């Protein structure tokens, strides 16, 4: 096609010129793909690669640009499909060997009066055949390839990484793609920092967009606005990722909420089944009660009806008996009257006339019957003739149908390619009507004979005459057609199978291709994940080195021999954990910090245990002291020290020390000695019983009143204490039997000595404490002071321990925090798993791809062989090959077969009808004979009657009227007598019937009474079951959807109306939605929900009153499932609300503060870019005045959510009001939530990127300006532009977009200006291409293009290098260099 442009058609403003900027100078490929050493020149920054498809021109562009600028291995493929991988590029042409290769690009720039500067941007790629991995390193250097930077050694082998580092410096080489990208962005485009990264990313995206080889097709499809929209800067990945990570941090809460919601959904799903089950149970129970109530009511009604019916029958029976008696009396009277008449003379005289009248009447009846029989025979004869004629018509119609089917058979047989010549020529019937004969016929006794037309059948002739032979011929034809159909159907099945196999083989081939592509993608993914795994392994080693060397680590953990721990290898070699896992246990590494801190933790634990033990001891002592203090303050005396074996004294006994008091003359020293002696002798705490027995603490009897009194007893130093509660005489008697001093069996002395038989001893005390109220009071005061002092000491120790525990807790927290801060292997473990899965997937994909390819080749070969055999077989049978032809033959053969069968049926029917007609003709002959005989008999009977009738008339004339009157009276009496007899017979029968009915009615009445009682019992039983089932826990709540119902109050003896009302109340309260669920459905649902809730809740079931009760048990208890479901729904709603609040806060802090501001900046940049595009386009016009303008606007109305978001984000967060911020959060969150609904498994980063891509909110519309002033048309199919014009306008707009983006860079004086086009200017003529290239020259934009037959040798282009790429399959690519100097082509040597 040709665009109507003339030379110099584009009128641009004065050319742009950036004399000091970076320009494309050279590029090269060394040992990559089939390029082994190829250098490309860029005269004036311009170069074109041309060649046939598959030659490698696009491959060269993909390897060089923009790959060397962005180091993005995933976007090397110009089509965007990701099929081009470094591994494949290095594998092809490697001939099965490991390989090193270089890709490089040289830029040049020159300041005024200064030496030219150069910058080489390159990539070294190492490929391993064994691993199938390609490892790139990126570098930048001012050295020039082939000038002062050789990339191959003397043996023509590419330099190693180490050798390259020696030449350019190791610091200029990096394996990090992002580091290389930052270097190129800053050096070549002046873009640095975070904002620079983002702008550089946008520029690279524009280059990728324009490089797509389907750009021309996308323009043709009307996608220019989409292309321009994609060229706008996207949102910052870092900002989106940061906001997404913070939102994803809520994943645990969201997951817990999701599990709760899922549990609620599971339970609600089950509850729906349980509701339908309980509805069915209660509804059926209520229905049983209702039916029972209705039945009881019916039974009662039936009983009442039975009683009424029985009473009515008894009454009717009595009435019949009365009437029967009256009739019998009348019968006797009539019988006597008849006998009197018969005895009269007049009766006897007329008896002869009556007998003759009866004879004439009998003959008349016989003659009339014979005449009627003759009429009937004539009618039968006429009917037979009519039947025969009808059959003749049917035979004719059958023949006509058979003839039509015969024609269809011939047509179908012709279509089946098998004409049949043996069929009859036609099938037809000829009908000829016959003239009927006439005869005289008598019809009645009194009328004369009449003329009657005798019916005659129509004559019939059939063609063919031998229908049986025609039938056999048609049957044979049907068999032949059946064989033809079988052949065609068999071949059709084969054809279908072959076509199906063709589809399957095509699918297999496509599948093989798809698997090959997937294998390549998976291999790239495996390499990326392996790189990520190794990066994380090195990062983990670095983190451990920092952590172990940290001063706080040494301070908290002490001196640790890290070399002997799992961390040791990482401290020695940072790559210890890189590569495939070799059985190393990362768990030990995660536990290393914890294990190394065990000594510090144990020391803290030991110290804490000691303090707690001391605290327990002091608490026990304090409680004991407080108890003692309270007792002393309550004047409770302290008891003497008790032995461990001390027993409780006998009932009513009192310790001896409570019964005595010191004598007034005894001094303090003697009192102390005497009390000490009593204590040591066991007497002080001995129990004194009311019988005078003194028992020791162990229960042994020490003294009784039977013992002798002492000469000098204790009565001299001790006296009875009235407060003891024991009698004075008893206490005195006991004291008198204990000696005061030696000389008695049991004695004590004031100096502390004592004796009891052979036992003696001595004890001392500083003062008396137990004997006497004064002594005990003093002891209490002294002990209270001691207790206060001891309690104070205990409190001091407790305070100190509290401070020590606080210090231990702080130390422990610090230790735990530091240990938790130790590096973890989670990310490495996850990366290893991901890499392992990716590697396995890649291997499996490669294996699957190889297998699929072999299988596709085998199946194609087998299909070709089977197709050839099928065609040969079809040719032998005279059949077509294809499905349509075979299907048509099979269909026509089937049709012919069916038609033959139909024709055979028609002929068979014709034969049967013809045979039936012959039978009917025979039957007609019989009917004629019978008619003739009947007419003869009728005539003879008429003659006999006629003769007798004449005789009777003459006799009747001769007899008088008296006899006639007698006969009339007799006749009347006999008639009355017969009527009475009939009445008696009827009444008798009716009486018997009523008697039976009355008896049966009585039995029914008794049965109805029994039914009524049984119905009432069944009704009450059903009501009880309904009440009990309705009261089961959780059943009513489940059946009513969460509500309840109250049964009406029942009287003591409920009526059927009461029960029916109760049943209807229950049925109306039930939520009857959905199909009723039976017990099997409930059990299946229970099994399903139990599996879904296995880790959260327990469901239990019990069967009560034949109803399954389902309970749910959680941490709070056990509840009926309907009640539990309501609680869980409420809990889920509260959880969702809480999660929403947290998400709102994160949205406020990060989405609004981060993404919102980013969105505001991007909108401003996009508007500025569109403005810059229009500025660039403003001065670009064709000679016809055609220009282009862009319009960027929202795709939705301004009052839509998107319009409101755009309006709100245009204000900075610092000046936006709280209400506006809340509104913005809601709008953004709604969009993100919508994405979550579409993809619940996606992360927030992905959903934020999709929901907040402002480019999807807008559309770019392209308007064509002119040629008339003010004329403006939107580019579309209705604009009536040719394909070439559309592409011309589109390329102008795209070039303006590139110019606007490049002109907006911060340092346009140095920044590289370039555009990349693959399969450039397809379907555009040379003159237009020249003008478009001239436009790029005037815009001062370097370019690198590919095209099948693209030249740049136009006067508008001052210089360009064109390379013709040629390559045979499996051989090296050869580039023939053609240089254009603006006037002529110069063919130079081939490169490569």
From TrEMBL:
<protein>
    <submittedName>
        <fullName>Uncharacterized protein (TIGR02680 family)</fullName>
    </submittedName>
</protein>
<feature type="coiled-coil region">
    <location>
        <begin position="886"/>
        <end position="913"/>
    </location>
</feature>
<dbReference type="Pfam" id="PF13558">
    <property type="entry name" value="SbcC_Walker_B"/>
</dbReference>
<feature type="region of interest" description="Disordered">
    <location>
        <begin position="516"/>
        <end position="535"/>
    </location>
</feature>
<dbReference type="InterPro" id="IPR027417">
    <property type="entry name" value="P-loop_NTPase"/>
</dbReference>
<dbReference type="InterPro" id="IPR013496">
    <property type="entry name" value="CHP02680"/>
</dbReference>
<feature type="region of interest" description="Disordered">
    <location>
        <begin position="625"/>
        <end position="650"/>
    </location>
</feature>
<keyword id="KW-0175">Coiled coil</keyword>
